[in-house]
Prior knowledge:
Number of helices: 2
Strand content: under 5%
Largest sheet: none
Oligomer: single chain
Amino acid sequence: MSLLSFCGKVAVGVSCLIVIAFVILILLAVFCVGLGAYASYTNQHAAQDAQQTYQNVSAKINIGVAGIHGVVSNITGK
């Protein structure tokens, strides 16, 4: 077996391993998305969870806006 033939076989092997790893990662991603979708579908408190998250985000946005207004007031004097 020549060096060129050996390098070709190694390259084909590595390429196959990369494709197999990619397929496994795609299958894992599909499984995880499906599991998350099932968990969301069977969650009886999804509306309450979403409302609580929205309230938390709104409160954080309001804190940020108040901080921006404070900084602008210090800079402009208004």
